[in-house]
């Protein structure tokens, strides 16, 4: 700008720095400030400096800015296949987002000695472990009714009927058919119902009624070599129990090390409705039932 002339708003009137340290790069009508090292690196990698955000004084582009840009570009992976989200997966996504958004999710985990259960299981080879879990948990829900409930944000609705949803892996996502009135059903009946639901899942013939009215959900990932995890609440339910794999492990019992069958149980719950202490008592009672043969047989009604 010549002496006596006025500068326009936003116009560069001076560049301050050592000689050769700053260079103006024209990009359309804008001026890009960059250091020599940044320009050299940009040339070597064929980078247009107009696409790089500068973090130096007055927005000057530094070598670090160019390096960050290179790293960002390198992190972009061109997809070989784009897969549209099908209606079932879209519904799963919507339900998960709603559940996560509308609840205060907390998970308590406990390790349980299930040796007594595994011993009893040998007497019922045709009944799956999941059926045992459904029957035992149904009794706990009778004892802890707060877990057998829905919450809509303003009203807690505890249910008399205990309807346990059981998560099945379809290969395309989880689906949760329901064992209705589980508390009043025998272990054998629950096993038969689960087998029937499993066949319906495979043949994709589940009805709306099969998927409706759950009050509590169980998800068993033990067969997939998972120990513990954070299950996400199903719909308006206030709790869900995740079951990990059963494996042999050393436990100290009466001062002696013994090999026992153990599993981790992960209880996720809505902290707005269930306090941590109540969740801990629920898991504690669960462990007590599993670890005491007489309590276990009483819970299973066998």
UniProtKB/TrEMBL annotation:
InterPro entries reported in the protein's UniProt record: 2-oxoacid_DH_actylTfrase, 2-oxoacid_DH_E2_comp, CAT-like_dom_sf, E3-bd_dom_sf, PSBD
Parts of the chain that traverse the membrane: none
Lineage, uppermost ranks: Bacteria, Pseudomonadati, Caldisericota/Cryosericota group, Caldisericota, Caldisericia
Protein name (Swiss-Prot/TrEMBL): dihydrolipoyllysine-residue (2-methylpropanoyl)transferase
Source organism of the structure: Caldisericum exile
PROSITE patterns according to UniProt: PSBD (PS51826)
Keyword Acyltransferase tagged: yes
Cofactor(s) it depends on: (R)-lipoate
Record's keyword terms, sorted: Acyltransferase, Lipoyl, Transferase
